[in-house]
Amino acid sequence: MTGDRPPGEAATLVVVNIGQLVTGDPRVRAPGVVEDAVLAASGDRITYAGPASGLEVAIGPETIEVDAHGAAVIPGFVDAHTHLVWLGERSEEYALRAAGASYEEIAEKGGGIRSTVAATAAGTLDELITATRERARRMLRLGTTTVEIKSGYGQSLAAELRQLRAARGLGTEPDLPDVVTTYLPLHGLPDSDRAVYLEGVLGEGLAAAAPLAGFVDCFCEIGAWDVAECERLLVAAGAHGLRAKVHAEQRTHSGGSALAARVGAVSADHLDHATDGDLRGLAAAGVTGVLLPGASMVLGGPPPPGRRLLEAGVTVALATDCNPGTCWCESMPLMVSLGVATAGLAPAEALLAAPAGGAAALGLGDRGRLLPGLRCDALVLDTSRWLDVGYHLGANPVAQVIAAGRLVGP
Amino acid sequence: MTGDRPPGEAATLVVVNIGQLVTGDPRVRAPGVVEDAVLAASGDRITYAGPASGLEVAIGPETIEVDAHGAAVIPGFVDAHTHLVWLGERSEEYALRAAGASYEEIAEKGGGIRSTVAATAAGTLDELITATRERARRMLRLGTTTVEIKSGYGQSLAAELRQLRAARGLGTEPDLPDVVTTYLPLHGLPDSDRAVYLEGVLGEGLAAAAPLAGFVDCFCEIGAWDVAECERLLVAAGAHGLRAKVHAEQRTHSGGSALAARVGAVSADHLDHATDGDLRGLAAAGVTGVLLPGASMVLGGPPPPGRRLLEAGVTVALATDCNPGTCWCESMPLMVSLGVATAGLAPAEALLAAPAGGAAALGLGDRGRLLPGLRCDALVLDTSRWLDVGYHLGANPVAQVIAAGRLVGP
Q1: A206 and A157 in a common domain
Q2: Are B339 and B307 in contact (CB under 8 A)?
Q3: Which of A82, A369, B58, B163 has a C-alpha 20 to 30 A away from that of A406?
Q4: What are the residues whose beta carbons fall under 8 Å from the beta carbon of A219, sequence distance 6 or more?
Q5: How many angstroms away from the CA of B345 is the closest CA of chain A?
């Protein structure tokens, strides 16, 4: 059982009357379900997660007790791939795409990444924070307790750094998801010479961004950045302590996942056009595969290879890709539904791909499951069945959000 | 313009400062957009829907004024196909299907429609109303102001009638969507002899259900009811004043849409396996095509033929199909997103398919657009852009709901 060591100190928070507790413990029935359970935390850490009958939690006068009234409790979602800092909106581009315009035609009409870059790079830090805060609040209400946020709409170094600072600023605010930042300097192509731009990124860019980011990322795609350019970035970033992520095989097969495996990236993301050989390479290198089924659906194309990734032995994460171009979506519950409906995942696999898979994609060993010693990021649902997260399509099943052992919303 | 006849009497409700008013008026830019607009109602009827500059609404002391603060206002959604009255849940079946179990295998394990029939037929009227009310409330919060509700989980006449009474009971409650009822006696196959069951439906069933329902419906599908059986029902129902609807070409091509055209049905629903010839037949007969893109996504199979329906000249409706087996979803905004992403509709087409298409599928000439003389069912959004309804995936863009000229939620 997950709760065989009752804590010695008084719990600061305890959730009682949990009908189904999804721990993510692989030793019990997937997705690690304990019935009639209790969850206890001391500070930001879980001290007990197991059957009520096995509990010897010390309840002190300061203990906050949350009665789940038989509801299910699951780990807080870790949304491991978002472009959450943006200004300007692209709803007209959404209409153009629906009318059949290609990625290239949209770019020619002033749409695409360039339009977001123009608007976002012109924004002040306060404007960036205000716009992003609203999205982050929606995410928290939908159960996201940790969110990765990329730069990538700046192109100038100053604008890229401002986006990273905006993301980190939000991470210090109360009642918002915990924030992990990623420097994404190779996204859309710059107006300036690409070789000159790349040299700037490798020099001044990485040096300035490294203190503000945990990861580096690149859009490895035909029409964007090629494998050689991306590889130079990822290798150079490693010397600055930034772990690699790769936008790989999204619109075409461009070699990004082999690159991710070669450089030991923490994740390869999208993968809609990945081959079975790519997936075996990711498995061998221990790279987490991040699926973005919202973007896959909006753009059309092949379904996300969830089943194939699992069969190849790759850890799977589900994320929103929240961005103004191809998927404006803050909802991890919807990603769980899409993971089952379109990516071939079983409900238990999809449910764990959202928190535990996301944590793996961010190299975070301290969260994503509800086990003693981990961060107490948990969601009390409005239903007694964890299955409803994916089954109840388009709904928000989250009744209460606990982040770092504290009741924060919604 | 839509608002060239100022009303003579005082408005009872007026919505001012509307950034974009979606009227559905085909004479102005799709989806009938008027900028800087005002919407006024007297009683449950719209008296003015047009530019603020053209307004001469008499504002009386009793007038309720809603300030949209620049937000968009759109027609309330008409969800024209739901199975909202059910008891028992089928989340385990959801897991089985994700694991690859077929419709037939699920039925063999006690799942499928039969399991819902067993639970629902055993419920009291109060139990049915309580379970359904919760779903209807979620629908209203998501902008549905009119909902069609089918029987179909009874099989015994008493149970079918109880479901219709539950639906009608909700229709009389305040702050819930307006309810239209459909008698669906040919849905799952009965335990008893099908011929005997059908004779009962054609005799006692239709006579008893007709006062409680506006429509009759049948599941015309291999493994369910065949064209000849369905045709007998639809023709006999016509003599009782019930207009026909048909579940057609959902899982296979079974001839339901040709039947719908032949009997002059008000709608043919699903249509995932419809041929171009079927669609031409629907157009010629004036049958509305109801697409259920949530169920299409959950079940897999071909995409909903939205573009093909429009090209054939068929009026298209989008609906949730809300049911416990293949699509537990109350969200019409998500159906608009899916209509664009998976059914080939342009955003303006999808937005109007949800209210105006739904109204057509229910033969309701008094709603679905915001034009003088129609029912004032309108949604004040949380955004200035109507495009965001489909563009903002998995969100609820509805800030305020106006039903029959009254502010009712959320």
Answers
A1: yes
A2: no
A3: A82
A4: A152, A184, A186, A187, A188, A225, A247
A5: 7
Nearest residue on chain A to B347, alpha-carbon basis: A95
Q: What is the CATH number of the domain that holds A70?
A: 2.30.40.10
Helix pair angle (B113-121, B157-171), 10° resolution: 80
Say whether both A123 and A59 belong to one domain. no
User: What's the complex ipTM?
Assistant: 0.95
> Which of B73, B43, B57 shows the shortest CA–CA distance to B6?
B57
pLDDT attached to residue A46: 97
Report which secondary-structure segment, H or E, holds A116. helix A113-121
Pairwise CA distance, residues B365 & A272, whole Å: 45
Looking at the structure, do residues B273 and B396 belong to the same domain, yes or no?
A: no
Strands B58-67 and B378-381: unpaired
Residues B84 and B33 in one domain: no
C-alpha torsion A263→A268→A272→A277, nearest 10: 40
CA-CA-CA-CA dihedral for B25, B27, B32, B33, to nearest 10: -130
- What pLDDT, on a 0 to 100 scale, did the predictor assign at position A143? 98
Residue B239 sits in a domain of what CATH number?
Answer: 3.20.20.140
Q: Which residues of A are less than 8 Å from B298 in CB distance?
A: 341, 393
Mutate to test the interface with A, among B94, B322, B336 (most CBs of A within 10 A): B94
Interface test with B, best of A335, A393, A396, A398 (most B CBs within 10 A): A393
Does residue A308 share a domain with residue A192?
Answer: yes
- In angstroms, the Cα distances linking A299 to A158, A361, B162, B299 are 31, 23, 44, 20
Is the alpha carbon torsion for B220, B224, B225, B226 positive or negative? positive
Q: Which of A341, A396, A296 is nearest to B396 (CA)?
A: A396
Same domain, yes or no, for B189 and B251?
A: yes
B2 located within any domain: no
Alpha-carbon span A163 to A132, nearest angstrom: 10
Indicate the helix (H) or strand (E) that contains A179: strand A178-186
- Residue-number span of the structural domain to which A119 is assigned: 77-361
Q: Tokens in use for A247?
A: 């936008």
Q: How far apart are CA A409 and CA A379, in angstroms?
A: 10
Q: Which of B114, B131, B209 is nearest to B166 (CA)?
A: B131
d(CA B230, CA B288): 18
Threshold 0.90, pTM exceeds = yes
Neighbouring C-beta atoms of residue B104, cutoff 10 Å: 9
CA distance linking residue B223 with residue B10, whole number of Å: 57
Report if residue B4 sits inside a domain. Answer: no
Q: State in Å, rounded, how far the first CA of chain B is from the last one.
A: 30
- C-alpha closest to that of A370 among A133, A34, A67: A34
Buried b (16+ CB within 10 A) or exposed e, B58-93: eeeeebeebebeebbbbbbbbbbbbbbbbbebbbbb
| Model pLDDT, residue B8 | 56
Mutate one of B330, B393, B396, B398 to test the A interface: name it (highest A CB count within 10 A): B393
- Token output for B25: 């008026």
pLDDT digits (tens, 9 = 90+) for A181-239: 999 999 999 999 999 999 999 999 999 999 999 999 999 999 999 999 999 999 999 99
H-helix segments, B40-124: 91-98, 103-108, 113-121
Structure tokens at A229: 């350019």
Q: Closest Cα of chain B to A319: distance in Å?
A: 13
Contact B3, B50 (CB under 8 A): yes
Looking at the complex, report in whole angstroms how far the Cα of residue B32 sits from the nearest Cα belonging to chain A.
Answer: 15
**Quick one: B40 and B104 in the same domain?**
no
| The pair of three-digit structure tokens given for residue A407, joined into one six-digit string | 């009741």
Report the pLDDT value the prediction gives residue A8, as an integer from 0 to 100.
56
Same domain, B214 and B104: yes
| Nearest residue in B to A97, CA atom | B346
